[in-house]
Amino acid sequence: MRRFLAFVVAVVPLYAEKPYEFWPGATYDTKIPTCRRVLGYDPGERITSHAGIIRYMEALAAAAPARIKLFDYGQTWEGRKLQYAAVSSEGNLRRLAEIRTAMARLADPRKTSDAEAQGLVGDLPALVWLSYGVHGNEISSPEAGLLTAYHLLAARNNKMVDDILAHVVVLVDPAQNPDGRDRFVNYFEETRGLEPDPSPIAAEHHEPWPAGRTNHYLFDLNRDWIGLTQPEIRNQVKALREWFPLVYVDLHEMSGESTYFFSPESDPYNPHLTASQRDSLKLFGRNNAKWFDKYGFDYFTRENYDAFYPGYGASWPYYYGGIAMTYEQASVRGLVVRRSDETLLTFRDTVRHHFVASLSTLEAAAVNREKLLRDFYHYRATAIDEGHKEPVVEYILPRSRDASATDKLAGILMEQGIEVQRAKAPFRSGDREYPAGTYVVAMAQPSKRLIRTLLDPQIPMDSQFVEAEEARRRIRQRSEIYDVTAWSLPLLFNVEAVASGTPSKGEFEPAQPVRVHPGEMHGATATVAYLAQWGSEAAGRLLTGALREDLKVHSSERAFVQSGLKFPAGSLIFKVAGNPPDLASRLARLAREAGAEIYGTDSGWVEDGVNFGSHYVVAVKKPAIAMAWDTPASSQSAGAARFVLERQYGYPVTPIRSLDLNSPELARFDVLIFPDGGAYSEWIGDSGVRRLKEWVQAGGTVVGLGSAVNFLAEKGVGLLDTAQENSVQAEEKKPTPASEGRVPGTEISSVTDYDKLIHATNEMPDSAPGAIVRAHIQPGHWLTAGASDSVYVMVEGRAIYSPLKLDKGVNAVYFDAPEKLLASGYLWAENRKQMSFKPVVAAQNTGRGVAIGFTADPNFRGIQDGMNVLFLNAVFRGPSHAR
Fold first, then answer.
1. Residue 58 burial class via C-beta count within 10 angstroms: exposed 0-12, middle 13-18, buried 19 and up
2. Which of 30, 375, 681, 720 places its Cα 20 to 30 Å from the Cα of 838?
């Protein structure tokens, strides 16, 4: 106890010393307000709320309007302001509009000659975007952002600052994730006591579920840069495209036991990064090292954090021609923490490290201004040139089976700055005819490398890295694959992307960056019914919109043909009888909003298939949907599932704390979703499990995602008759029993035999490193209605489940054969063999209800749109099939 108190007392002087010099020797203009003058405390003394951040930035802008300008660039889901500031010299700030226009000229070598570009290089400042706090509980960087802005405006007689302001326009985004930050700050303020507590197990250092890392919908915003699902990142990308900053830095935090990381990144690098970009990383790394060495800060480079996945903030700007870097600071998650070596790490020190790294980066950008500008122009010029010469000169995106998914994909590409053409009339390319409305993405454009990165089915990792990774895996060393190895958007959206070696010829126009194109009502005066083909995102939006307006909706279990049009299983039928008199006008509006096509009919007669009065036509119930919320659910799985239902399909979900799932109120819900997560049975207890089983038996639909399938399959739960598999072990001859105290003798004749011998006998499969695989659809079941013959699935982790027996249920979707399984990314050979023909989606009736398991989470990062039809079938058609 005495030793612990000594550490607590030692904390107090750390915050009482005055003054603390973040940049030793600096003198400041008293006309520029300090943090203390505006907020009442010094930097690093408290953790600033988002409102405080905005208030301080506005105070700086009021004090120095000639050198700082604020830009609002959107709002979060919770209505908090997204804001960045431009800071530079008075001369640069006066010509901000001119600078932005000049950067746009430099960004398009088709319009700007090399000679004109050289003139621009001689005149333009470098643009550097400093992005702080993308993870809300990584708390030091936003404070460093405020300090950086203050230092640039207030430092006097400082040559480094003067050079930065003369040669750089600094774009400071102090808080990328306001909702997550305030979630952390509120919790910290609730739990902090008389003085900062250094104990690493003190409550103030440990947030409850879901923690502040993520945004309102619990998305990791640092993974959202290719899907652009969240307003924080979608709007930031829009702002970046207005400026084209040459340098983008994303400042993070990591384990409190670590030090500081800056560029260069570790292997593997994305192959679409250029040599000049990788060289520039070293320029910034060396300059950071210079200052960290000067001040005695520890750091490391080339470890942990790679540059392979393009969906980070510190990756995406590469692909328009900038430099993108991750900086990582050991985290306090409070004001002070005691580390394992008995040293104290203070919040103020972590702020200072990020502050010094920020200024060092700006200095390097100022010194290398001309190189960065020339490299940017060269990057975009060579992209165009390569686009003309490569075997694939364009991607063709036909609006085939799910035109609405293709529309959305094309819209996302355009939001990222990719030029997309749309066919005004049918055209031919190669040996195939394409209809009007088809999208064409030519490679010969400045965004060529981004196109390849997002649309290619495979982005290869460096072969030497892969060999080393396999070697590490054999001896159970930690994997150095930081994130997923695949992300091809056409595969995740389950839409066609045709790689063409010849340019298409026909009538084309620039496509509009719209994710949802208005749908249409065909035959607005129907007397019998209105029909909509199932199997598209648009049809899903139409269904949820109609249910929310209490329209009566039926769905066909079998395909049918009427008036020459084929309607697949699952197609929606809005019967005139039983619906409101204004059904036609309401459906016309819903069609426009959803992007769906609706067809009116005056007859129930069909040319083929089932009639509207068949017992294969069932009423779609308006379900009340609940979701397990809180520990032990994965917050990101819970957030993604809720986001898909609420924001992509406009249907409300009721989150229920796990401990409240034992409530009689559960009876009011038709669907209960368990997100990917761990020991649900321990949290809800025996009585909760008993109530869940009774609820399903009474007609409820339970949906388990990812590892929640394990919960539904537990012996005491028994809602899915499957089990998680161990890894496959080679059959071995049993050795002769040995005498007591000894083990049987063995002969090891090869490395292969040695590897087998040292492996555990009851071991789970090796963790799949985020690959996209093919899966087959079992036709004829209501769970697969409207789905195509196959679907692509993102698989991560170790979970492989045994198939359901036919007398228990159905394996509605199952993984493809070993030789066909892998569609994109990297997957261990053993995983390919064991995963094949195992279930992806399984369903089992219990009493009057049904349990559905998705062994791979269908809502991965909100971008696995190709799985949406299956997920919607489970949630909206499941209750219609509960008996």
1. middle
2. 681
- What is the number of other CB atoms lying within 10 angstroms of the CB of residue 91? 12
| pLDDT the model gives residue 13 | 46
Q: Which residues of the chain have pLDDT under 50?
A: 1-15
| pTM, to two decimals | 0.94
The alpha carbons of the chain give a radius of gyration, in whole angstroms, of: 29
Nearest alpha carbon to residue 35 among 49, 24, 16, 25:
49
Q: What would the DSSP string read from start to end of 78-95?
A: T-PEEEEEEE--HHHHHT
Residue type, 841: V
Q: What is the pLDDT of residues 572-611, one digit of tens each?
A: 999 999 999 999 999 999 999 999 999 999 999 999 999 9
Helix axes 159-167, 140-154, angle to 10 degrees: 100
CA atoms of 644 and 651, how far apart (whole Å): 9
Q: Report how far residue 88's alpha carbon sits from residue 92's, in angstroms, rounded to the nearest whole number.
A: 6
CA dihedral 212, 248, 261, 88 (to 10 degrees): -100
Q: What is the pLDDT of residue 740?
A: 66
pLDDT score for 474: 87
Which two structure tokens, joined as six digits, stand for 538? 């648009």
Contacts made by residues 688-692, CB under 8 angstroms, sequence distance 24+: 688/661, 688/662, 689/716, 689/717, 691/661, 691/662, 691/666, 692/661, 692/666, 692/717, 692/719
DSSP letter string, 199-230: -TTSGGGSPPTT-SSS-TT---GGG-TTT--S
Collapsing DSSP to helix, strand or coil, 853 comes out as strand
Length of the chain: 883
Contacts 24+ apart (CB under 8 A), 101-106: 103/127, 103/243, 103/244, 104/244, 106/244, 106/373, 106/376, 106/377
- Give the Cα-Cα-Cα angle 467, 471, 476 (nearest 5 degrees): 140
In the structure encoding, which two tokens stand for residue 474, read together?
A: 């054999």
pLDDT of the residue at 11: 40
> Is the Cα torsion angle 503, 509, 514, 518 positive or negative in sign?
negative
- What phi and psi values does residue 333 have, to the nearest 5 degrees? 55, 40
Yes or no: say if 357 and 260 are a contact pair by the CB < 8 Å rule: yes
Q: Is the peptide bond before 19 cis (omega within 30 degrees of 0)?
A: yes
HSE of 130 in the Cβ direction (CA atoms, 13 Å)?
A: 29
- Name the nearest CA neighbour of 68 among 142, 158, 151, 131: 151
CA 260 – CA 262 distance, rounded (Å):
7
Burial of 42 (0-12, 13-18, 19+ CB in 10 A): middle
Q: How many CA atoms lie within 13 A of 478 on its CB side?
A: 4
